[in-house]
Design a protein that fits this description.
The protein has about 280 residues and is an alpha+beta fold. It is built from 6 helices and 9 strands, in the order αααααββββββββαβ. It has 2 domains: about 180 residues, L,D-transpeptidase catalytic domain-like (Beta Barrel), CATH 2.40.440.10; about 80 residues, no CATH class. A 5-stranded mixed beta sheet has the order 3-2-1-9-4, sandwiched between helices. The two termini are about 30 Å apart.
Length: about 280
């Protein structure tokens, strides 16, 4: 058990007795169909929901990100402190794409001015790449979230109804909450299941919640856990949700801050709609 799990010491011991089946990927269910909620009456910090009565909507086509406003063409030094030293990051695999977004000369080659502009944008977005100014996977993944901010549902994949719906876009690895056409939260980055433990698609509902949950299978903290399909849940993680090699056991991982905001937005009984497939799974 790691340091993070030990912080929940006493609670984890109780959870191991009370919640024997709760944890990411713990329940195998037919894809697109919700598993039964954990049996038993609600306990402190937990809530249960009514049964799902929804059905997947007609597939209107592939999702697409809406255009986003351009960033500045130049910025301060890519070093942690403004004005400190040259910016020397090499061109990354997404150099041209980031140049296009920032309104830089889109030649795919890194200049010091390009490096400074990319680094400045990364700082404004609170990204912390290993090499400031480098247009790598983390920067490209975050750019996908930024591009979706104007209208995350531009592709029409998530149904617009009177219900509050948590929309999970597996191909783009992002989610948001909407009610009708109004976006209540997000879009925010996520990390879904991989390596044979995919996040199940289709309609579900938030069946129960536990703010300080600890997985009884993996013995790891799942803060702000909101279960929607058997053992699969939204919850916060401490590691990098942008890590291309990382993945959950089926849960939808969020940053700690985003998981807390989602906890404050959703309620037991709110609907969840998940579609698509994560690249590489």
């Amino acid at each position: 058990m790691g340091p993070a799990a030990r912080r929940y010491g006493r609670w984890a011991a109780a959870a191991a007795v009370l919640l024997p089946v709760a944890g990411c990927g713990a329940v195998v269910a037919e894809q697109g169909r919700p598993s039964p909620a954990v049996n038993g009456s609600p306990r402190h910090g937990q809530q249960h929901a009514r049964a799902d009565d929804g059905a997947p909507p007609h597939d209107p086509g592939a999702s697409s990100a809406a255009p986003a406003s351009r960033g500045p063409s130049a910025g301060p030094s890519a070093s942690p402190g403004p004005g400190a030293g040259p910016c020397t990051a090499p061109a990354g695999p997404y150099q041209r794409r980031v140049e296009e977004f920032l309104g830089l000369p889109a030649d795919g080659r890194q200049s010091e001015a390009d490096c400074r502009a990319i680094s400045a944008w990364q700082r404004r977005e609170k990204l912390r790449p290993a090499v400031p100014g480098y247009a790598g996977v983390k920067t490209r993944s975050h750019l996908r979230v930024v591009e979706a901010r104007r209208d995350p549902n531009a592709g029409g994949r998530c149904p617009e109804t009177r219900d509050r719906i948590a929309c999970v876009d597996l191909p783009r690895q992002l989610m948001w909450v909407q009610q009708g056409r109004k976006v209540l939260l997000g879009p925010v980055p996520i990390r879904s299941g991989k390596d044979g433990r995919p996040t199940r698609t289709g309609w579900n509902r938030i069946s129960w919640r536990n703010e300080k949950h600890v997985s009884t299978i993996y013995k790891t903290p799942m803060p702000y856990a909101q279960f929607f399909n058997g053992g699969q849940a939204f919850h916060g993680v401490r590691d990098d949700v942008y890590d291309p090699d990382g993945g959950s056991h089926g849960c939808v991982n969020l940053t700690g801050a985003d998981a807390k905001r989602l906890w404050e937005t959703l309620r037991v009984g709110d609907r969840v709609y998940i579609w698509g497939r994560r690249a590489g799974t």
